[in-house]
Design brief:
- This protein has one domain: Alpha-Beta Complex (Nucleoside Triphosphate Pyrophosphohydrolase).
- Helix 4 packs antiparallel against helix 5.
- The chain is globular.
- The strands form two sheets. Strands 1, 2, 3, 4, 5, 6, 9 and 10 form an eight-stranded mixed sheet that branches. It has a two-stranded antiparallel ribbon with strand order 7-8.
- The longest helix has 17 residues.
- Helix content is 33%, strand content 30%.
- It is α+β, with helices and mostly antiparallel strands and 202 residues long.
- The chain contains five helices and ten strands.
């Protein structure tokens, strides 16, 4: 499945094994999560370079649903490529600890430094499609993101800093407002609404 010649090296097999076990232990709450869990596990088993963009067909990514301490708001960025308010996240780029990737991406994309996991457990799993696009003057072909999502908590009083390379804005939204703010219908219906429902069950 999606096997591409490996260009990955120097990463801990332990981290990959721990992530694989965490994904196996994850309990899907709907058909989307069940199907995507199977797909991600198969992808990890078949691809040595699953964590790098050398695999141009698909690669591992991490995202975060960042909430305030009261869990009444979510922190979103206005993404340049997707032209929409969206969650934070990014490529593993060789890092096999995807919680560390999610935490790193929040800081890079928003400037918020006091961000912590609500839980170290996986909050959600998704296989995401990415349309072909231009980045840094080069064409990036359509591909898949094998995505692991974590629930993180941040201080909404912290100053926010736009990452000009990727984002046009950053803002806190009420949970329902976040759904209205996004202009990506599939994400709203399949991902963001689900994440809010999970959050409210905690």
């Amino acid at each position: 499945m999606l096997r591409v010649p490996s260009g990955e090296s120097g990463n801990s097999a332990g981290n990959r094994a721990e992530l694989t076990e965490a994904i196996r232990a994850f309990r899907p709450e709907n058909e989307q999560e069940e199907a995507d869990k199977k797909g991600i596990l198969a992808f990890l088993a078949a691809n040595e370079n699953a964590f790098t963009r050398d695999n141009i067909i698909a690669h591992m990514t991490a995202s975060a649903w960042v909430v305030n301490r009261d869990r009444t708001k979510v922190l979103m960025v206005y993404h340049r490529i997707y032209d929409s308010w969206s969650w934070t996240g990014g490529h593993a780029d060789g890092e096999e600890d995807l919680l560390a990737v999610a935490l790193r991406e929040v800081t890079e994309e928003t400037g918020v430094r006091n961000v912590t996991p609500v839980s170290k457990d996986i909050f959600s799993l998704e296989i995401l499609t990415v349309d072909g696009h231009e980045k840094h003057g080069s064409y990036v072909p359509s591909h898949l993101h094998m995505n692991v999502t974590y629930l993180l908590e941040a201080d909404e009083e912290e100053p926010l800093t736009v990452c000009e390379d990727e984002n046009k804005g950053i803002a806190w939204f009420g949970l329902d407002e976040a759904l209205s703010a996004s202009s990506e219908p599939w994400f709203v219906q399949r991902i963001y609404r689900k994440l809010n429902e999970k959050l409210r069950k905690l």
